[in-house]
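Q: Predict the assembly, please.
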Amino acid sequence: MSLIKTAPELANAISATYLIDLAVAVVFFLAMIVTAFIINYDYGKVDNSGKTRRAYFFIYGVLTLLVSLALNWALFFRNIRIAAFSNKYLMHLALAAFAATAAYYLISFITVKLSKNRKLSSIFPKKD
Amino acid sequence: MPKSVFVVGIGGTGMRCIESFVHLCAIGMFDDTEVHLLAMDTDKDNGNFRRLATLVDNYKKINGGHSKSETLFSAKINYYQFSPDYDKTDNATMARIINNNADNNIEIANSVSGTRVKATDLADLLIRPEVKEMSLAHGYRAQTQMGSMLMYYAILEEAYNTRSNSGGLRDFLSNLNNGSAGKQVFVFGSVFGGTGASSLPIIPPAFNEAAKIMFNNDSIDLVKNNYYGAVILTNYFTFDIQCNEKVYATADKFALNSQAALNFYNNDQTVKDVYKRLYVLGRDAGSLRRLPSGGTGGADQCNPSDFIELMAAFAAHDFFKQCDKPNSFDNPDKRFVCRGIDDNISHLSFRNFTEDDKEFMKRLGVMTVTSFIDSAYEYFENLRRDTVHFDENDLIPLKKYFQMFGIKSYTDEKGRLVKGWLNQIVESAKDCGYQEGAFFKPTLFACSSDKDFKKYEINEKVFNMESAPTFKVKLFSNPFNVIKDKVIDTKPENNKTLEQLMERTYLALSSLYSL
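A: Predicted assembly structure:
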């Protein structure tokens, strides 16, 4: 990746950051669904597989944040040498990562709640 | 309106035949049927009698008291017991029974010859003194000449005693006498021992007389108005007896007893007229099963189940099917149909038991897998907590029933390790030379520890046959996961009772194995 030296290059980098973070959120959303299906029901008196799925639900949310930050730091932030640009990009980098994480949790939560599939719905089971 | 059938089991063998019959009800071979079961034994303490009572008690709790179809435990069972219970009355011996009734000492004139004779004299003529004095607490001990008289007498005595009270026999006969004619009655008993052999020929006329007395109606005819069928088991096991008493049943006389009985059944006009079908089951002398030595009866007489008793239960299944076909018994010509099992087979298959072998395979397969997954994975408790919500106490009779059904061995109240019914059936097949047992892969019964059960590939290793029904388990999955997934998707709206979970399990497993 070449160095970011001009304002248009910075603007492009900021746009790309938001798109990349959105993609990361989608990837972890899909990973969460696949993982929920892959985790088997526990046998024995109590089936705790729902708790395992819930743990992965949260882990993937945190990973969305961390991967977004790391990816954009590696792709763009390292290539900015101008201090003013760095400060501006850092703000967008953080904003995009948190937005992606929020999007992941929101979409995943709605999907889980609306799903009739037992494995997905076991992440947030209805209280009897 | 469910179909109604009547089943009578007499003596130790009769009890074990009923036991197999109850298991057929449990696997669902009698859909939409109300079964009236009467267990008759002189020996109320008999281990088989008690085992049957426990089994039926658990069955009834699981079934919930109504008949249904396409599920396990589908038939409704009404269970009745009748026992002369000789050890708890004054009638502990034949001699005491004769002496207790003053009428037996009155001389009766023979209408033809004019000879005057007492009933006691007749008894002396027919019955040896040591037989007259033997305790009846453990049954008739192969003394059928006495047993037939005593059982007839006991049934009539019960009729007089229950004219205004309830009782097992009265309730059974009341249902038999209720409503329309054409009831289907099937009787199980052996012809080589005591109680069954004594009672089989006298049951229909004794029931008829008893009903007339109980319901105070001389126009009752339970013989002509109903269809009677019976299975008679000739000797199929042998044992060494350790007994200090003068009179007891010995296995070496079983073949002779059987021969005499068959001769009687072949010639007796009453038997021929009453029984529409007689199914005779037995083994040749070279393939008798040797059982552990025992006493004359009592709690210790709890013989293991044998596959021949399951065949007897299927005789009842066949008889009830024949009764439903129009004009089944119209042909007055008596025919003999003979069937055997092929030599040189490694295991008994479903086809050896019934012409409805596909249905039998489906039903027994589903029940066996259900019992297995409950042993291996705590299946019912697992699903009760998150899928079908019912009271945990509902599972107690089911657990007990599965123990007695027999995938996993259990410890009884005396601390002995006991194999359940299916395991005993398979063992009996092995004892008779079928080295791979019956129906299922021998490895299925080799699981002993929890680890064995959990590791077993129940999706593939169930049926012992070429191109056996199986289902696929994907990478990272396991059989329990696939089964639970399928059950969750089957009739999800039925999520309130154990009965509903049973039906969902039945449908899911039938679908998974494509049965």
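Residues 7-36+48-119 of chain A form one domain. Residues 7-38 of chain A form the longest helix (32 residues).
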